[in-house]
DNA sequence: CTGTTAGCGCCTTCAG
DNA sequence: CTGAAGGCGCTAACAG
């Protein structure tokens, strides 16, 4: 029990040969029984199954995957910070789908740097995964071209390779959020942008389109590019912009973490402000409805993002799907909770006229 | 480019033999170069490396792991809902440590049921992972005894097997939270308990100990066992207990999700209540400091939980650590934010006397 | 120093 | 219906 085995460190698991000997049959027979048991006499199969149980035999998936053609039964998932509920949701939902088909999901260690991503992906490929789901970083992904493994990009496309991509309607969402604010009468809307990922660019595009459609000019000093994508950066930027002589009457935060930073800044600024700006965030988040002013957001079904990606990848891996690269776009909806329905205050309005 | 290859679905990656032929050397030499290149003439090694680059060769980890003894270079992580920031944090931090040693982390699909966990674990074992990190469900885990793979349990121990375990000081945390409330003068403290996991039991124990130490009896009607561990169950229970003729003046929520439910209920009850109870939660959560009343919690370093588990498992897997099963317990601290510092209201006090 | 050889555990022909 | 044999990509042991 509490004894150690310095010389026999590993308890080797039984193999098919052990089972075959135990059951007094040939190796091939055992294999057949294990894989569906087709074409084996019932009595023989019984004996084999008994031996399997007695020995506690478990098929070695590694050896199995070694056969040519036969890919392994695991998918790789490469993404950033699992601590971000957005990514966690993708991980969970894709894992769910993969699991239903008996696939495991391997998470590559993903540091922040773009080189780290490449290394992680290659390590995963060397593990013979049947397919890759990648939330890509900004670097070039052309190196995946010859990997010989199906790839599905999630949340944003990658450059240098034409592969399946599952994402949300970023531009539509950006437009939706902006239109909503414009409809309340806001004419000075600030937008906070995380470092230029593809998604953020599209959201900004929606922002501009909505303005154009409404015949309102975008004040470029309110298009705020943040140096980092975290709450702190957004907090700082919000404080600065709100203390300007001519502050915006509404803020569109392009990311869940940014929304948090905006709210934090507004909370601290509090009474220093003549009036509180309306706020709309992109992506919903837990507790958004419980904050002092419940937060209005533009959101999409992130879990479905992960599910779609996994399903698509599974079909590619099995060879069931041979269509040219697909592009799945999930819609965004508006969830009104209060913060986005604040009208522009009268003082600001007076100034604008 | 946009052509499909129905008959040749896989681009087979180059193998060591290809490299050997290309470099005009033997197979063994290539292997030696790939594994550190010890004992190979420099010039030869150069040629081999060149061939590797030209062919884009990558060692097949699967084949490598087939050798006896040589375990694969991936760890398994089995846990519940990745959507719970608590688990997500464990996943992230353990992944970080594993990655530093060149290990990947395989996530088994974990349904809710206890049988699903066993199946998931066995699938992972069949994939020849080098070790298992498990946040165990309630069932018996004796079946892991003969798995021949090191196991580290995370957050709570499992029954039926004596293995390493990394967890937080649940009892200490429960006691800390309770002492804090008692110190404010609360004598009627309700505790909300998620379905009886090990951790919850310990937290309750701390709750009772703190009472005993203070010479105050626990009102058993305030020890509330919830049917489920989600926010909704806590919300419902909170509403009920607060509407009793003799409601508690403080609430200890034993879980992050439960805390959320408590706050939600209190928010809705609002003015119906004669006075708002103090609230302390177990485990910190994002935005806890931004709620209408910032939430006081007892918390520990969850990321360290994951890191310790991964480090320990890595040492076990490599054989570097052969000590008897370890038990690592991380401390809990109190984070005062407001909700836990509300004194019992005067009306309630009068009643109690 | 370097090439050759024998498996690792399994699946897939191919005979019997 | 069943047993035997070959090979997947790699490493380790053994000759040269």
How would you summarize this macromolecular structure in one to three sentences?
2 copies of one chain form a homodimer. With 353 residues, the first copy, chain A, is α/β, with parallel strands linked by helices.
Please explain how this structure is put together.
- The structure is a homodimer of 353-residue chains.
- With 353 residues, chain A is of the alpha/beta class.
- Chain A has three domains: 16-59, 434 Repressor (Amino-terminal Domain) (Orthogonal Bundle), CATH 1.10.260.40; 74-168 and 302-322, Rossmann fold, CATH 3.40.50.2300; 170-299 and 335-352, Response regulator (Rossmann fold, 3-Layer(aba) Sandwich), CATH 3.40.50.
- Helix content of chain A is 41%, strand content 14%.
- Chain A contains twelve helices and twelve strands.
- Chain A has helices spanning 16-23, 27-34, 42-55, 61-66, 85-100, 114-126, 170-183, 198-214, 231-242, 256-269, 302-318, 346-352, and strands at residues 74-78, 104-107, 131-134, 151-154, 164-168, 189-193, 223-225, 250-253, 278-282, 296-299, 327-330, 333-335.
- A six-stranded parallel beta sheet of chain A has the order 2-1-3-4-5-11, sandwiched between helices.
- In chain A, strand 1 (74-78), helix 5 and strand 2 (104-107) form a beta-alpha-beta unit.
- In chain A, helix 1 crosses helix 2 (27-34).
- The first copy, chain A, is elongated, with a radius of gyration of 27 Å.
- The termini of chain A are far apart.
- Mean pLDDT of chain A is 90; it is low at 1-10 and 346-353.
- Chain A binds a DNA duplex (16 and 16 nucleotides) through helix 1, helix 2 and helix 4.
- Chains A, B: It comes from Kribbella rubisoli.
- Chains A, B: Keywords: DNA-binding, Transcription, Transcription regulation.
- Chains A, B: Residues 14-68 form the HTH lacI-type domain.
């Amino acid at each position: 029990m509490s004894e150690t085995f310095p010389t026999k460190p590993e308890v080797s698991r039984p193999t098919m040969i052990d089972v075959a000997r135990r059951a007094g049959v040939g190796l091939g027979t055992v294999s057949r029984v294990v894989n569906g048991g087709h074409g084996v006499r019932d009595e023989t199969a019984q004996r084999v199954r008994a031996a399997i149980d007695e020995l506690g035999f478990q098929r070695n998936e590694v050896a199995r995957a070694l056969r040519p053609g036969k890919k392994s039964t695991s998918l790789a998932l490469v993404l950033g910070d699992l601590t971000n509920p957005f990514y966690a949701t993708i991980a969970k939902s894709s894992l769910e789908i993969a699991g239903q088909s008996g696939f495991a999901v391997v998470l590559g260690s993903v540091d922040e740097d773009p080189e780290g991503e490449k290394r992680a992906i290659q390590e995963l490929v060397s593990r013979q995964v049947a397919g890759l789901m990648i939330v890509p970083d900004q670097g070039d992904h052309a190196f995946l071209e010859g990997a010989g493994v199906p790839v599905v990009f999630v949340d944003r496309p990658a450059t240098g390779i034409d592969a399946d991509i599952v994402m949300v309607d970023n531009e539509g969402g950006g437009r939706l959020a902006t239109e909503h604010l414009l409809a309340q009468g806001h004419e000075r809307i600030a937008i906070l942008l995380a470092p230029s990922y593809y998604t953020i660019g599209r959201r900004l595009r929606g922002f501009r389109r909505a303005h154009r459609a409404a015949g309102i000019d975008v004040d470029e000093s309110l298009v705020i590019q943040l140096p980092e994508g975290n709450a702190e950066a957004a907090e700082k930027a919000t404080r600065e912009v709100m203390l300007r002589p001519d502050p915006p009457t509404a803020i569109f935060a392009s990311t869940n973490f940014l929304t948090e930073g905006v709210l934090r800044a507004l909370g601290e600024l509090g009474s220093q402000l003549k009036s509180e700006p309306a706020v709309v965030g992109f992506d919903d988040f837990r507790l958004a409805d419980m904050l002092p002013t419940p937060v209005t957001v533009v959101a999409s079904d992130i879990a479905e993002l992960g599910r779609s990606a996994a399903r698509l990848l599974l079909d590619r891996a099995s060879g069931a799907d041979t269509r040219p690269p697909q592009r799945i776009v999930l819609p965004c909806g508006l969830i009104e909770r209060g913060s986005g329905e604040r009208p522009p205050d009268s003082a600001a309005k007076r100034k604008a006229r």
